[in-house]
Amino acid sequence: xxxxxxxxxxxxxxxxxxxxxxxxxxxxxxxxxxxxxxxxxxxxxxxxxxxxxxxxxxxxxxxxxxxxxxxxxxxxxxxxxxxxxxxxxxxxxxxxxxxxxxxxxxxxxxxxxxxxxxxxxxxxxxxxxxxxxxxxxxxxxxxxxxxxxxxxxxxxxxxxxxxxxxxxxxxxxxxxxxxxxxxxxxxxxxxxxxxxxxxxxxxxxxxxxxxxxxxxxxxxxxxxxxxxxxxxxxxxxxxxxxxxxxxxxxxxxxxxxxxxxxxxxxxxxx
Length: 270
Description:
Elements: E1 12-19, E2 49-54, E3 57-61, H1 67-73, E4 81-83, H2 89-92, H3 101-105, E5 109-113, H4 115-124, E6 143-147, E7 153-155, E8 158-166, E9 172-178, E10 181-184, H5 192-197, E11 203-207, H6 220-230, E12 234-238, H7 246-252, E13 257-259, E14 265-269
Parallel strand pairs: 3-4, 4-5, 5-6, 10-11, 11-12, 12-13
Antiparallel strand pairs: 1-2, 1-14, 2-3, 7-8, 8-9, 9-10
């Protein structure tokens, strides 16, 4: 067997689904539907995010409003970097929950995002960037930006390949490929050039909001069509709303495609 340098050998990683729900979560406020009243814990879906445990540390993808509860629930004590798909509120507005992380890291939290996301973070969290001294340690989140675009980049020593996608007709978002795993939420169109970046993944995560068509998200059938086009061994559906019961939907789905759920863990190779 030929020698393979350590730096080029695949390593194991672990993906944890912190949240798998749509922007309003499941159960939805004030809703008495069957899914919102379900006793199946897999129908309880907080807002979308994952962590990826890598050889160099743990990367968080997006900071949803439920972040504090999610990290405590999954006993994730430390996040070493954050990567952003886009700046919508359900993917951004838990950022302040990272205020404790710099104490444990010993430095600011690295944020990997494009120019649009950075400008929205600076506006929404202006107090974190104000030109004044904090009154006490931890008063504001300590953040450090690394600008990304559509080119591959490294986070914690692992290559991330951006997957440019459309989230409705006027909004651009990013999915990410990490080794044999890809995470593509909040989209209703993946261009052919981006589909090429997904070739060969073993686990694909794709958003599937509901049964009916939606102007900015894949519905269930559209997500299935993408899964078939990519040909991953396993496809997991995320960003799902209260129209989709976990067990009934999984029973209906084709072989190799299932719904993800909060707390699900998946081994990957990076």
